[in-house]
Every structure is written in structure tokens, then in C-alpha cells.
Amino acid sequence: MADKIWSEDKILQEDLERIAASEMIDWEMLRDKRILVTGATGLIGSLAARALVCASVKRSLNLQVAALVRSPEKGKAMLGAFLEDGLELVTGDILSPVAVDGPVDYILHGASVTTSKDFVDHPVETILTTLKGTEHLLELARQKQVMSMVYFSSMEIYGVPDAASYMELGRRQDVPGSARMAAVLREADYGYIDPLQVRSSYSEGKRMAEGLCAAYAHEYQVPVKMVRLAQTFGAGIPKNENRVFAQFARSIMEGKDIVLHTDGSKAHCYCYTTDAVLGILTVLLRGTDGEAYNISNEETYSTIRGMAEMLIEKYPQSGSRLVFDIPEDANQYGYAPTSRMLICSEKARALGWRAQVTLPEMFERLMGSMENS
To answer: What is the pTM of this model?
Structure first.
């Protein structure tokens, strides 16, 4: 099975094999089990579903992976190569009660609205998808008496950190001076979110969904954990992906200028997709019920501007320059409020997880994958 080709995208193929070969995960806990993945056509959910199948085959685990999809056609187009090796497509919409025949041992709940502009243009749908969807998956977990469930939350639940959270990052000389004063955030640190701003539909929805998970863990003993993901990217992103990392990568690849619609002073951490999936699986199998875990590579902390400058310096052959085009009403783009947050993942590291992919390597692998697609 070592020579089996899971994807024509060689970077994605390497990522699947990297996850399957990882010794961070106690794979024997998944032997002969069935795991349901929602958001299975999204970036992280699809990688998790495919990597679990890959690991099952390579390690002879007899693991069954059920991928919940709204569109069977889209599911087959993305995941069809895995259907003969333990993946099954379950058609359903998380806005309705989720029905899955047979046992379910584990749940990875990653379905969510993820496009920033949708948070502003469709705040009602953003909130309801988060809350009603999570309620339906928690009810399924309760009904099936699952062994563990992980809800994919976001670093955006931290909002705008309080000034008291900021400290000097003396060891990070690679970060511009102004950004070395950053809010170092652990799981109990929460900043301000204005619930009356429509952009808050995403962050407030994530906060409430986490509260619902904690409530189900307390009242009904549902073994659910939450992972707060830093912005995550890597091989296999959709061709129409428009988040900043994809825009930057395309600009470099096409020899175009990198255009910023803000001053680029916002700073936070990132995470490569393989690191994120391994973090999610670590929390699934070792995390404490009702608790949240940051999944973030602290070494990737950078301003948006610094990230753009790093790419221009690393790929001088592109001829790309940094250009600012700041509109009068930047809110139309759905950008999160400006802040400088270093998301601390020591709690996840205590479970045995480690982020391994650096920011330059993240972009190298992203662009390699984009060239293959």
C-alpha cells in the first residue's frame, strides 16, 4: 500500500502520507471504529477524512469514515478515490437533524460558513449554521453515545484582546517592532466582541457553539472537546479560495503585485493543514471533555504586511511588489478587527501534539499544490 497514489497532487499525496505515518496519534484507538466527519468537502474536513482512510489502509485499522455532504456529486468529485477503501458518503444538511444509520464512535464536526464576506452579507445564515448545526451534531453524539467528538472552533472567539494581555516578544527579532507587542492568548483569555456588528456573526456564533458544547458535556455527559484553530491553509485549497494566503500565493505565482486593502498591521499565527489535522486527532483521542484547545503554530506569528514582504523577498523572480489600496469602507470585505494575537498552544502540546511546518514551508507547499491543480 505504500505505493498507492491517493491524489494526483503530489503535495497533497505527501500530506496524506505524513499524517498516516505520524506517531503523535494512538492509531490503535481507531481500530474497527466508525468516525463521522462534517464539513467533509471543506479544506480541513476533507483532509481529515482522506487522511483517516489513508491511515486505515496503511495500518490495516478497518476504520470506517462517514463523510457528511450536502451534495453527493461534489462529495464524489472530491472524495471518490477513497470510496473503495473505507469512506462512505452520507447525504445530509446540518441545518436539519442529522440521521446516520448504524453506530458512530467518533465525530469531527467541521461544517461551518468560512468566507469572511459571507459573515457580513449573510450573518443570519452564518449564526444559524453554527448554532443549529452544532446542536444537531451534539444530539447525534448523545444518541449514538460516541466515544469522543471534536468541534472545530476558531481563534476569532478571542475577539479584540484587552490591552493588559499584551506583552513584549523579545525573542522574535524577525517580527517588526510594533508587532513585537502582542497579546499572548491562552484558552481562558477572552477579548471584546461587539455583538451588534454583523461581522461578529461568526465569532459570536463560535463562542455560543462552544458554550453549547460545554453545556452538553456537563448536562448530558457528551464527550465533546473544542479546538480553536488558527488560520489554516495548505495543499488542496479550492481554486476559488479568496482568503489572504491564497491571494498572496496567486500573486507570487502570476508575477503580480500583492495588494493590501488594510495597512497590514494585523498580526496572528497560522497553521499548516497537516499540523491542524494531527492536532484535531490528538484532542479527539486525548483531550478532556468540555474543554477547548488552541491549535496554532506560534513560530508563524507575523503581521499581514510582514507575510507579504517575506514572500516578495523569498521569491524575487516573481517581480511582485507590495501595494496598498485601502478603501474608505474596509468593512465591506468582512475583515476581522485589527489586533496582534499570539495564540498559545501549550495546552495541546501537553497532549503530545507539535506543529512542525514553518510559514515559508506552508507557502512553498501551498504553491506547489496550486501548480498541480
So the answer is: 0.94
CB 46 within 8 A of CB 15: no
- In whole angstroms, what is the distance from residue 1 CA to residue 143 CA? 36
**3-state secondary structure (DSSP) of residue 238:** coil
* Residue labelled with grid coordinates 476569532: 156
| CA distances, 269 to each of 13, 128, 149, 232, 299 (Å) | 25, 28, 25, 9, 8
Q: Which three cell numbers stand for residue 64?
A: 470506517
How many Cβ atoms are within 10 Å of 342's Cβ, its own excluded? 25
Q: What are phi and psi for residue 57, nearest 5 degrees?
A: -70, -50
How would you write the pLDDT of the chain (373 residues) with one tens digit per residue?
A: 446 888 999 999 999 999 999 999 999 999 999 999 999 999 999 999 999 999 999 999 999 999 999 999 999 999 999 999 999 999 999 999 999 999 999 999 999 998 888 999 999 999 999 999 999 999 999 999 999 999 999 999 999 998 888 888 765 555 555 566 888 999 999 999 999 999 999 999 999 999 999 999 999 999 999 999 999 999 998 777 888 999 999 999 999 999 998 888 889 899 999 999 999 999 999 999 999 999 999 999 999 999 999 999 999 999 999 999 887 665 555 555 567 899 999 999 999 999 999 999 999 999 999 998 7
